Amino acid sequence: MSPRSNSSTVSLPRSNGKQAAPQVTDEVVVREAEPDDLPEIVAIYNEVLATTSAIWSEQPTSVAEREVWLTGKRAGNYPVLVASAPSGVLGFATCGPFRAWPGYAGTVEHSIHIRTAARGHGIGAMLLSSLEDRARSFGTHVMVAGIDATNEGSIRFHRRAGFVEVARMPEVGQLRGTWRDLVLMQKILDP
Ligand SMILES: CC(C)(COP(=O)(O)OP(=O)(O)OC[C@H]1O[C@@H](n2cnc3c(N)ncnc32)[C@H](O)[C@@H]1OP(=O)(O)O)[C@@H](O)C(=O)NCCC(=O)NCCS
To answer: Is there a domain that residue 119 lies in?
Structure first.
């Protein structure tokens, strides 16, 4: 698979002084993740873990764990994409198998996370669109998103990208000691 890039200029918020924020108009490029991106991917993942209910885990990740993850994605020919600006990585997206049986080979489940300071500026849309193109390029028929039912922002985001809600599964997981409901949304890429 050859890496695919998208480039776009977007407006991003100025720094609030608490973290290195992206510049006001950064050139954002979507590209394949490289091992050098892993510290920033880890920071984004751990920020989402600590501040949202999007990831049903209480275990922060590490660069060592993400090295194994990236190697596994590459071995399986699954893309890991980053939205990269001169100021650093703003978000990442990846996909993997939906279910293990051969009949599900045409379906992938994806995940996508954007740095808090960079949300709401079209970066998620850019990343998801590139991920869809990549998924199409290896014959994917359906993409699935599994979303915490209280994550209305992500549900809206996916709906806007053409995903439709197909299931609501009460109490199929736990986070911080409480049962969580899962919303499954899907998009048929080539109807
Ligand atoms: C959900 C997410 C990937 C969307 O990416 P994004 O770059 O913020 O989204 P875009 O700018 O491309 O699209 C904006 C739309 O996303 C939705 N959205 C979700 N969270 C948002 C946020 N924190 N700020 C602004 N928009 C958000 C809204 O529907 C928004 O459209 P609207 O303002 O007209 O309602 C991103 O907000 C994120 O990483 N959130 C935290 C982690 C998460 O929930 N990941 C998905 C798990 S399934």
So the answer is: yes
Reading the chain (191 residues) residue by residue, the pLDDT tens digits are 334 455 666 655 544 434 444 443 469 999 999 999 999 999 999 999 999 999 999 999 999 999 999 999 999 999 999 999 999 999 999 999 999 999 999 999 999 999 999 999 999 999 999 999 999 999 999 999 999 999 999 999 999 999 999 999 999 999 999 999 999 999 999 86
The Å distance, Cα 98 to ligand 1 centre, comes to 22
112 within 8 A of 33, measured Cβ to Cβ: no
Instruction: Tell me the pTM.
Output: 0.91
Q: Which domain holds residue 80?
A: 6-142
Residue 72, domain member (yes or no)? yes
- Total number of domains constituting the chain: 1
CATH number at residue 15: 3.40.630.30
For the sheet with 107-114, list strands across it. Answer: 6-11, 25-32, 80-85, 88-97, 107-114, 142-148, 178-188, 164-175
Ligand 1 proximal residues by C-beta, below 6 Å: 48, 52, 54, 112-114, 119-125, 145, 147, 151, 153-154, 156-157, 160
Whether 71 is covered by a domain: the verdict is yes
Non-local (6+) Cβ contacts of 139 within 8 A are 106
Gap between the Cα atoms of 109 and 169, Å rounded? 16
- Cα–ligand 1 centroid distance for 119 (angstroms): 6
157 within some domain: no
